[in-house]
Design brief:
heterodimer; A: alpha/beta; four-stranded parallel sheet; B: Serine Threonine Protein Phosphatase 5, Tetratricopeptide repeat; about 70% helix
Chain lengths: ~130, ~200
C-alpha cells in the first residue's frame, strides 16, 4: 500500500487546487485528502478537519502531510497528538512548499516509496 | 489559597470570555497591523465555545475542567493561537493537583508556559504571548497577588510594541513589525486582568 498524502491549507480553495494538481500527476495510485478553513469556514485550519483528512487518506504505510503557514503546522501537530500512537508515528509533516511538495511527495509515494523517502523527496525542495 | 470551586471556575471562564468578546475588534485590529487579522474573531469563537459548554465543563473536577476548556479552544479557535492557548490550559489541568497550594499552582503554571513555548517552538524575546506569560511567571514566583500579576502582564504587553517579531506571521514583516503590540501578548494581558478582577472580587487567592 502506498503512502497517503494530506494537504492542509488555510484556504480550502488552495487545498483543493493542490489536490487537483496531485491527482493529475498520480491518479488514484495514492490515497489523498485535503482540508482548509477554520471551524467557521474562514481562512485558517481546524484540528478536527485535519484529523478527518488524515483518516480519509490513511494508509498503513503512513501519511505525509503538506501544510502552508504557521497555524496549519501547529494545528496539524496537535491533530497528530490527538490521533495518538500507534498511528501518530506513521504521520509526518513535510517541511516543504505546499504545491511543489505535495506533487513531489505524491509522485514518490505512487512508486511505493517508504514514508521517510516520501518526506525526504518533498523536503529536497526546502532551502535549509 | 482557598480551593477553587466549580462556581469559581465558572466565574473565571465567563470573565475571560467576556474580556475577549469586549476586545475582539481591538485584537483583530492589532493582528491586521502585523498578521492575518483574525486573532480577535478566533479567540472569541474559542472562548464563546467554552462558555457555551460551561455546564458540562465546570461540573468536572478542576484539573479535568481546565483540560476540557483547553481542548475546546484547540478544536474551535482555528489559528495557531488555538493550540497555544489550549496547550496552556490543558497542561495547567494536567499538572495541577486537585488540592493545590500556591507553590503547586506556580509550578503547574511554569510547566504550562514551558509547554506553550514547546508547542510554538518559540522562546521569550520573539514578540509573542510568551513575552507576557514569562513576566507573569516571575511575579508569581515572587509571591505577587493576582492584581500584581495582571499589572505586570499589561506592562509586558506594552513592552512588545518596540520588539522585532522573529516568530509567527508578524516575523514575515521583519522591521515593519516594530511599533505594534503583539496581538497574542495583548490577549494574554486581557485574560490576566479578567482573572485578577474576578479573584479580587471574590476576595480569594
Amino acid at each position: 500500500m502506498n503512502v497517503g498524502i494530506v494537504i492542509v491549507s488555510h484556504s480550502p480553495l488552495v487545498a483543493e487546487g493542490v489536490a487537483d494538481m496531485v491527482r493529475q500527476m498520480v491518479g488514484d495510485e495514492v490515497r489523498l485528502a485535503w482540508c482548509g478553513g477554520d471551524p467557521s469556514g474562514g481562512l485558517g485550519t481546524s484540528v478536527e478537519a485535519i484529523i478527518q483528512a488524515i483518516d480519509r487518506a490513511w494508509s498503513d504505510a503512513g501519511v505525509a502531510v503538506l501544510i502552508d503557514l504557521g497555524g496549519a503546522e501547529t494545528n496539524t501537530e496537535m491533530a497528530i497528538e490527538f490521533i495518538g500512537e500507534p498511528r501518530a508515528s506513521l504521520i509526518a509533516i513535510c517541511n516543504a512548499p505546499i504545491v511543489e511538495g505535495a506533487i513531489m511527495a505524491a509522485t514518490e509515494a505512487s512508486g511505493g516509496a517508504s514514508l521517510a523517502a516520501v518526506v525526504a523527496t518533498a523536503e529536497e525542495l526546502s532551502p535549509l | 489559597m482557598p480551593a477553587l470551586t466549580s462556581d469559581d471556575f465558572r466565574a473565571l471562564a465567563c470573565a475571560m470570555a467576556a474580556a475577549i468578546a469586549a476586545n475582539a475588534q481591538r485584537l483583530t485590529d492589532l493582528d491586521s497591523a502585523i498578521g492575518d487579522g483574525d486573532h480577535g474573531a478566533n479567540m472569541k469563537r474559542g472562548f464563546d465555545a467554552v462558555e457555551g459548554e460551561l455546564d458540562q465543563i465546570a461540573a468536572k473536577p478542576l484539573p479535568d475542567a481546565l483540560k476540557a476548556a483547553g481542548m475546546k479552544l484547540v478544536m474551535t479557535v482555528g489559528g495557531a493561537s488555538g493550540p497555544l492557548a489550549g496547550t496552556f490550559f490543558m497542561t495547567l489541568g494536567k499538572e495541577l493537583p486537585e488540592n493545590f497550594d500556591r507553590a503547586g499552582f506556580v509550578a503547574a503554571y511554569e510547566k504550562a508556559v514551558d509547554a506553550v513555548a514547546a508547542r510554538g517552538k518559540s522562546h521569550a524575546g520573539q514578540k509573542t504571548m510568551l513575552d507576557v506569560l514569562y513576566p507573569m511567571l516571575d511575579v508569581l514566583k515572587q509571591g505577587g497577588d493576582p492584581e500584581a500579576v495582571a499589572a505586570r502582564a499589561e506592562e509586558a504587553a506594552e513592552a512588545t510594541i518596540p520588539m522585532l517579531a522573529t516568530r509567527g506571521r508578524a516575523s514575515f514583516l521583519g522591521e515593519r513589525s516594530i511599533g505594534h503590540m503583539d496581538p497574542g501578548a495583548a490577549s494574554v494581558a486581557l485574560l490576566a486582568r479578567a482573572v485578577a478582577r474576578t479573584l479580587t472580587a471574590q476576595g480569594g487567592a
